[in-house]
Specification:
The protein is mostly helical. It folds into three domains: 215 residues, Clc chloride channel; 207 residues, Clc chloride channel, CATH 1.10.3080; 140 residues, CBS-domain (Roll). The chain is 63% helix and 5% strand. It contains 25 helices and nine strands. Helix 24 links the parallel strand 7 and strand 8.
């Protein structure tokens, strides 16, 4: 095909934005799926190099001599430390907060080298026994690939963020064989906003990456578990209690991780690039006693799901996994917290289930059911992403029977964890750097912009005595869907939208009898011109509305303008640009 023809075809596709973005999402999905496969074999290669075999790390470690159990994690840290320090310091830690920060503060721009450095550092960390997971690295790897494509094609901010989210969705989908969870992970965590405008490209990327991984590894669930179900309605209180316990454990895990990071930063007086080796040595010492803490830990999760671990070991593993993961990431190693959260949830839920079943054997399922639900509950309690937690457990196990207690426990865990700590395990890392995110936006920037500087001045108001017939004609000339209702003095008395009058509009003979006041919502959420956009976003998010009437502080019924989601995003992007220019 002639070059000119290809160029013309490409230019033609670019004119159709949805098609263009969908094709790019497909390409990102291909790269993310391929990257997940390559990353898996990089981990296998490291395991072979240090432990002399392939497969489950626990099986290799169990037969290894004691000196290897002790020193291999330290050797891994000794290699990883300089790689991160000299080539890409954002590859340190679990990776997801760095992607969130790139989306919120840098328009989705991630350095191209991050994908390679994160792959290498995390593969070495996991393969040598650090107590970390693979999801954080693959999210950062996939996101870096998406960002690289966006940068190469000079995508604007919204498209760039979409490509980054596509990479994250594809990575999660491929590594866990969970396309729906991949999509929800990107929406709930990376973008911080479940907006359907970005839904299609995320689905395309996640499905493509999943097809690639299934073509390579097969279509088996990630975890094979017995079929569990709700044995009795009396189990519901037990699952609610499990949700509360999971939340407490999740918050303790999050706090422990960053306290350990503070310890290495403030108390361990040595070069930054040597600290992962110290962390690795401590992990090796723990692993001599409890080898189950090495690596991702799917072998132990399987045993917990089948109820094959005794209560004392479940309790011991709960404590030791939190300590080991905190040491791994706190010392500066590279890897994710998602898989450790699954591990912690499995052993915590298993221990809870052992106790519950021993007390009420006829009314409760065996411990494996609680281990399964506990996995989702701790993930929900650490990430504050309950939909992701529910979907990933469902897709990893293909077990629908346990979905009701899973949903209840995950929601309970999320609510209670957010009560105990305002920040998730991801946003806490950013908050410690002074970066406060809400709905994917940097709160400090939102707080610096006043409503009066972002609002649309004036408002299309509707008299409360206007008839339905006149209101319908009024709508034909307006671009808006929500209208403040005012009384005879021009003061706001309500708000009306299509949702309020859509039923009455089809009732013949009522057009001249019904007036707007009868259909309007009287309790109006308003905002004053002196409040900031963070306040506005909280009000909009709480009630899931599109616009807020702006009123005078001294007269809260005097409307002076309207503030929409679009106004907030536009002002935020402008403020973000100014923030970047000041930093240059």
């Amino acid at each position: 095909m002639p070059k000119a023809t290809v160029t013309n075809l490409f230019d033609s596709i670019k004119q159709h934005e949805n098609t263009y973005v969908s094709i790019m999402a497909f390409i990102v999905g291909l790269l993310a799926g391929g990257g997940a496969i390559l990353f898996h074999y990089m981990i296998e290669a490291v395991q072979w190099l240090f432990f002399g075999g392939f497969g489950e790390l626990f099986d290799l470690v169990e037969t290894a001599p004691a000196y290897k159990k002790l020193l291999v994690p330290a050797a891994g840290g000794l290699i990883v430390g300089p790689i991160i320090y000299y080539f890409a310091r954002e590859a340190k830690g679990h990776g997801v907060p760095e992607v969130m920060s790139a989306v919120a503060l840098r328009g989705g721009v991630i350095r191209k080298r991050v994908a390679g450095i994160k792959s290498l550092a995390s593969a070495i960390s996991i393969g040598t026994g650090s107590s970390v997971g693979s999801e954080g690295p693959i999210v950062q790897i996939g996101s870096a690939m998406g960002s690289a494509i966006g940068q190469a094609l000079n995508f604007p901010g919204a498209r760039m963020k979409s490509m980054v989210a596509c990479g994250a969705a594809g990575g999660i989908a491929a590594i866990f064989n969970a396309p729906i969870a991949g999509v929800m992970f990107s929406l709930e965590i990376i973008l911080g906003d479940i907006a359907f405008s970005t839904f299609s490209p995320l689905v395309i990327s996640a499905v493509t990456a999943t097809v690639i991984s299934r073509a390579w590894w097969g279509d088996e669930p990630t975890l094979l578990v017995p079929s569990y179900e709700l044995v009795s309605p009396w189990e519901i209180p037990a699952y609610i209690l499990l949700g509360f316990i999971a939340a407490a454990v999740a918050v303790f895990f999050s706090k422990s991780l960053y306290r350990c990071e503070d310890f290495f930063d403030e108390r361990v007086n040595m070069p930054e690039y040597l600290k992962p080796a110290i962390g690795g040595l401590l992990i090796g010492a723990i692993g001599l006693l409890v080898p189950q803490i090495y690596g991702v830990g799917y072998h132990t999760i399987d045993l917990a799901l089948f109820g094959e671990l005794p209560l004392y070991l479940l309790a011991l593993l709960l404590i030791m996994k939190i300590v080991a993961t905190s040491l791994s990431l706190g010392s500066g190693s590279s890897g994710g917290v998602f898989a450790p959260s699954l591990f912690i949830g499995a052993v915590m839920g298993g221990a809870f289930g052992k106790i519950a079943h021993s007390l009420f054997p006829a009314l409760s399922a065996t411990s494996g059911a609680y281990a399964l639900v506990g996995m989702g509950a701790v993930v929900a309690g650490t990430t504050y992403a309950p939909i992701t937690a529910i979907m990933i457990i469902f897709e990893m196990t293909s077990d629908y029977e346990i979905i009701l207690p899973l949903m209840l426990t995950c929601i309970t865990s999320t609510i209670f964890a957010s009560f105990l700590s305002k920040e998730s395990i991801y946003t806490l890392k950013l908050a410690r750097k002074g970066i406060k995110l809400q709905a994917g936006k940097e709160v400090n920037i939102l707080k610096s912009i006043l409503v009066k500087d972002a609002m649309a001045k004036g408002a299309q108001t509707v008299p409360e005595n206007m008839t339905l017939r006149k209101f319908n004609k009024f709508l034909e000339k307006s671009k808006h869907a929500n209208f403040p209702v005012v009384d005879s003095e021009g003061l706001i008395s309500g708000i009306i939208s299509f949702q309020d009058f859509r039923e009455a509009v089809f009732e013949s003979g009522l057009e001249d009898l019904i007036v707007v006041k009868e259909l309007a919502t009287e309790k109006v959420i308003t905002i004053t011109e002196g409040e900031n956009l963070d306040d506005a976003l909280s009000k909009i998010g709480t009630r899931n509305i599109e616009q807020l009437p702006v009123v005078k502080k001294e007269n809260p019924r005097k409307i002076i303008g309207m503030l929409s989601r679009r106004d907030i995003i536009s002002a935020y992007n402008k403020g973000l640009l100014e923030h970047r220019l000041r930093e240059q």
